[in-house]
Amino acid sequence: MADNTPAPKGSPRQVFGEALRFYRERSGLGRDELATLVHLSVSTIRAYEDGRRVPQRQSVAEIEDIAAMNADGALLMLWDQFEEGMRYQVFPDWLQDWAEAVEPRASALRWFEALLVPGLLQTEDYMRAIFSTRFGATQEEIDADIAGRLRRQEILSRERPPALWVILDEMVLRRPVGGRPVMAAQLGQLVEAARQPSVRIEVIRASVGAHLGLDGGSFAIADFQDAPSIGYLDTVMRGLPLKDAEDVAVIERTWDTLRSEAESRSASLALLEEVTKIWTSPT
Q1: Which CATH number fits domain 93-280: 1.10.10, 3.30.1890, 3.30.870, 3.40.50?
Q2: From 268's CA, which of 59, 104, 166, 184 has a CA 20 to 30 Å away?
């Protein structure tokens, strides 16, 4: 999927990729021919040209050594100039495809969270409280993580946002992340989101007790109009995208089970409003 999503126009990866494409096409070499000459796959050459992957400098040097390319050192010069910019990315590798190629293309996103408000609905202060718990994290790293998450949220404010369907465990609403003011603002944002026609939030009450989501953890499902659904699991180390149909079927069955445990949309909104009053009222 990553190979089908070019880098943003004007970015270092995109500029380098276009330069590589220009010299290759001018030389008359097809991607398959260039790939054979430098012992790379055709998909790798395409990913370089689309700005989806950053080549090693040695690979660029080998491309430069092909006489037909006649690049005269231009590609190496660009690589040296753009190296740092090409390697920078808003999201870590394991999140890159999900955030840039899955979420923006999805017609609907289904999300279950047992511990935290989903990232797409978090306030900036709530994010900061979460990211600040990371041992050894610098302020610069925290600010970069927040910027990346805020960028992901932009899909919900576009003209035709994906439908967002969230199921939350009630304890997500009652855990004092960041303190009372942070939670008051966060619950207010959830209430506002729940009233939007493109967002549906349902809550599993604490009185339900044990449910399947407490054992399996948080996950998301991205649905498309023209492609199979893709799953996403949160783990301690990193997020895990799931494309295998059997894996996706497992988390879809989990989703259906959790739906049966959750309150209706209207009852969940009433609960959100009720808990918001707790956070906004004097102690």
Answers
A1: 3.30.870
A2: 104
